[in-house]
Amino acid sequence: MKIDKNHISDHNNGHLDKHRQEFEFLEKRLRDTDHPASKILDNLSKLQIAIPSWALGSGGTRFGRFPIGGQPRNLEEKMADIGLLHQLSQMASRISLHIPWDIPEDVEKIKATADEYGLAFDAMNSNTFQDQPGQAHSYKHGSLSHTDPAVRRQAINHNKEVIDYGVQLGSKSMTVWLADGSNHPGQSNLSKALKRTGESLAEIYAHMPADWSLFIEYKPFEPYFYSTVIPDWGTSYLLASDTGDRAYSLVDLGHHLPNTNIEQIVATLISRGKLGGFHFNDSKFADDDITVGSIKPYQLFLIFMEITQGMAANPHGNPDIAYMIDASHNLKDPLADLLESLESIGLTYIKAALVDYESLEQAREENDISRCSAILQDAYQTDVRPILREFRRRQGGAIDPVAFYREQNVREELVKERGSDSSASGL
Ligand SMILES: [Mn+2]
């Protein structure tokens, strides 16, 4: 669904007086710092977040699913939904596809639809965590790490096929999240499983074009509860290092045990040039996949601080990080929720840009701990919403995307167009 530009202008005009006052106040405050509003606004346009095709419908748990109406029924409609998110937020110009849920039947048509909405294809995602109809071998006991070479062959070939689809669409990267693992102590030879995984990844890597990157995602548990083959960043880093220069680790916020210092992992990976991808979400207990910044917003700020500092220093040439929102929406309207997540990412990115890193570094050298904390708080406590609103206004987006989405009754329109029992493929 495409929004009439005049509707967005009307919305923005209604907010303009108040917005101008708030923006001018903040702009003045930042004018004589090394991070004036103009610089932040320029940098914001480079912050683009991929939306995965599977995050546009209602998710569920193993206990059930409560569908929402108006879900996208095919890839074109998924792109239309992401086009809408991008039109309002100006921050979501990338789509991440999943095979086999999004097999592009007509590549030229899919590319034309992407152009129409101003979208580019981000990382491709393979799936060896489910059996597909008609598949010769089952993944019940693993895929890339399986004991049987025939199962590994099938899983490797599937990953190669995903790369081939991505090449046709102009994607430049591949994400492997491997669900392989075991549920019972003694079930798996842990070191053999890791070795077989490394060999499988090497074959997948060799199939990628020379300008592609491979992202290796890790997760400590789920769907398996005793061991996963790639449980942590260390294992992912090890596999990426063994696999090749264009293989990187991927950090998903929800794929850590409670209270893990994720910002430190980010700092370490960037310092070795090995942080390729980053998946946003938030969680209270495990891989909850809820709205970005809704539970631990300060952690997100500390992560963005490490990214800002790490990418400024960048001793090992870490590439631009591929950002994606990996979320699941069990109760909320997926589109409203994604708009909230984009808002949260934008605001936190700006707050991290406000940190006076020079003074912070000096205070660190002098072991002045209180001063360090004060510098962080000075940035974190700033209300930066006017900058993000101004960014969207200048780019043709909505000053308040979530409010606009509600005012326009977008979900109701989508239900009219697609029906109340439409279903999106995916989890
Ligand atoms: Mn993920």
From TrEMBL:
Domain Xylose isomerase-like TIM barrel: 104-289
Molecular function via GO: isomerase activity; metal ion binding
InterPro entries from the UniProt entry: L-rhamnose_isomerase, Xyl_isomerase-like_sf, Xyl_isomerase-like_TIM-brl
Keywords: Isomerase, Manganese, Metal-binding
Name the UniProt record assigns to this protein: Sugar isomerase
